[in-house]
Design brief:
281 residues; mainly alpha; two-stranded antiparallel sheet; 10 helices; 2 strands; 69% helix; transmembrane helix; ABC2_TM; transport; membrane; transmembrane
Length: 281
């Protein structure tokens, strides 16, 4: 039985013209989840900065690497070894890409494995927090850290005479997509790791060959290795960053497409295999 508003003599919840009012619940639910997302991003940021030692070395590591390369290649001339660029023009975007990989892949895989092992994820799953809010908050945090890292590397490279990126929109798009891709792969690896003690070794076992084959340590001139690395996720990121920095700019759609494909693959594995509870011993 419908109720009647005594002040207007029309059914409660109806408009003045007699039409039914739109339901408020979906809108309220969406607004509540967005507030939860903002809270989760803030929580991830506070958790990160409240561990000053970890935060310090997260930002110092790429800076130290680019400073070392700056001391080695400062004033270097363009050469075929660096594909027509100077050493610093090559290493500045590559180290920026490496810092995104570290912040979004290796750290996330290890942190999630530790949180699961310590029972944090199990307790979190028992709360009303939706899973998509938790992982979206983690992704947003990783994107923020990635931008800070890339800005630091660009700043140090500029001090050594490396020109600023020629295509900032392409650089931003590349960083955001790469962060999403490697976060998905990080969650996927965390879903396959049996315990937190094994996580660092597994992550390094996967990351080191990828970084080596992709030319992050030094340029690769082998056609075979370059062909292999092209279909892996790190080299497309390096190529897209190099284009945004020193190759005239523009969006490397093919490279970003490969990154997107790896991100989708990581998401599928994570959705199917991710565990909130520690694996029984």
């Amino acid at each position: 039985m419908s109720t009647v508003d005594p002040t207007t003599e029309r059914p409660a919840g109806a408009h003045a013209d007699g039409s039914a009012a739109a339901p408020e619940r979906p809108r309220r639910r969406l607004g509540g989840e967005l507030r939860l997302l903002a809270h989760q991003i803030r929580f991830e940021q506070l958790s990160f900065w409240r561990n000053p030692q970890a935060a310090f070395f997260t930002f110092v590591f790429p800076v130290v690497i680019i400073v070392i390369f700056g001391a080695l290649f400062q004033g270097g001339q363009e050469s075929d070894f660096f594909f027509g660029m100077s050493g610093m023009q090559y290493y500045t975007p590559v180290i920026a890409a490496l810092s995104v990989l570290g912040a979004c892949f290796s750290q996330l895989a290890i942190i999630l494995s530790m949180r699961r092992q310590n029972g944090i994820l199990k307790r979190l799953r028992a709360t009303p927090l939706p899973a998509w809010v938790y992982f979206s908050g983690t992704l947003a945090h990783c994107v923020m850290v990635s931008f800070v890292l890339v800005a630091l590397v660009i700043g140090v490279g500029w001090l050594y005479g490396v020109p600023l990126p020629v295509d900032w929109p392409a650089l931003v798009a590349c960083v955001v997509l790469a962060a999403a891709c490697f976060c998905a792969l990080g969650v996927a690896i965390a879903s396959l790791v049996s315990n937190s003690e094994a996580a660092p070794a597994i992550v390094q076992f996967i990351q080191f060959p990828l970084v080596f084959l992709s030319g992050s340590y030094f340029p690769i001139h082998s056609d075979l290795l370059n062909t292999i690395a092209t279909v892996l996720p790190v080299r497309p990121l390096n190529e897209a960053m190099l284009t945004a920095f020193a190759r005239g700019g523009g969006v490397e759609w093919q490279q970003l497409g490969i990154l997107l494909a790896w991100g989708v693959l990581g998401t599928v594995i994570a959705v199917r295999r991710f565990r909130w509870d520690p694996k029984p011993e």
